[in-house]
Write a structure and sequence with these properties.
single chain, 283 residues, Metallo-beta-lactamase, Chain A, 7-stranded mixed beta sheet, 8 helices
């Protein structure tokens, strides 16, 4: 059974899900041949694999921090169908099931601004205008990621939908950071480039325990092996080096890791056997 909640020192961390979507398996695993990746992620007739849109709620007792917001409720119908998105009850619905309202969120952290990580930042109001979903929250985004998202290359333009993030600035809820930065006591963002040049992860510490949200550095438990790197990554060599760095720290510190696209595991750990890194489910 998937573990959906952990206690981390004095904090609680909940795994939430905006839904599921489907992406090309070859693109998700890059240079790794299909006979290898299909053992862990079986593909459909269109070579697609089912992935989750995972978010995490960090409840410190004083503040509530939401990491990632999925695709949201206002994805264009053609995109919705193209990726065979499944959203029930969606992220806000999942929060409500825990007894939280959108107004209860103090901070939202986006690892980067691809639509499957920040689409739930905003929604349409009664007039059809895009407004922040979490009206009391400050949205934490890397400055370099923000600047690139406003003027992406032709290769990346389809991944950046401005309605997902421009309204944050218009409503005074945007907080840009530049590199590693403390957000609140026990919660900090860590710059870990590779997927994008300013991709950030989230490190949470309480009473000597550590939770580290990997974002698209390691999107699923199936990407723990070093060569398992997405074709979507702009800087795959940086991804490779940063995976090794983070995994070594995680093993030494006994960190709990969070996965953004894994349909079966919100949480897990890594171990090293015969120079290879392996996923360990959280018990």
């Amino acid at each position: 059974m998937t573990i959906e909640r952990i206690a981390l020192g004095q904090f609680e961390i909940h795994g939430l899900r905006d839904g599921f979507f489907h992406l090309d398996g070859g693109a998700m695993f890059g240079v790794v041949p299909k006979p290898l990746w299909e053992k862990i992620f079986p593909s459909d007739s269109q070579n697609r694999i089912k992935l989750a849109l995972n978010s995490f709620l960090i409840d410190t007792g004083r503040s509530r921090v939401l990491v990632e917001t999925g695709v949201g409720s206002d994805l264009e119908e053609k995109i919705f169908k193209y990726y065979s998105v499944e959203r029930e009850p969606g992220l806000v619905g999942a929060l409500q099931q825990l007894g939280f309202r959108a107004e209860d969120i103090d901070f939202v952290i986006n690892t980067h601004l691809h639509f499957d990580h920040c689409g739930g930042n905003t929604c349409k109001d009664a007039k059809g205008n895009y407004v922040p979903v979490f009206p009391q929250a400050k949205y934490i985004i890397q400055k370099g990621e923000w600047e690139y998202a406003l003027a992406p290359s032709e290769r990346d333009k389809p991944s950046y939908l401005k309605q997902n993030f421009v309204p944050l600035e218009e409503h005074g809820q945007l907080r840009l950071v530049d590199g590693d930065e403390k957000i609140i006591d026990g919660v900090e963002v860590i710059l870990v480039p590779g997927h994008t040049s300013r991709h950030q992860c989230v490190k949470v510490r309480s009473k000597g325990e550590v939770f580290f949200f990997l974002g698209d550095l390691v999107p699923t438990s199936g990407h723990v092996g070093l060569p398992y790197i997405m074709s979507y990554d702009l800087f795959p060599q940086e991804t490779l080096e940063n995976k090794k760095k983070v995994f070594d720290q995680a093993i030494e510190g006994d960190w709990i890791l969070g996965f953004t696209h894994d349909p079966d595991h919100f949480f897990g750990k890594v171990k090293k056997e015969e120079k290879k890194y392996k996923f360990v489910p959280l018990q």
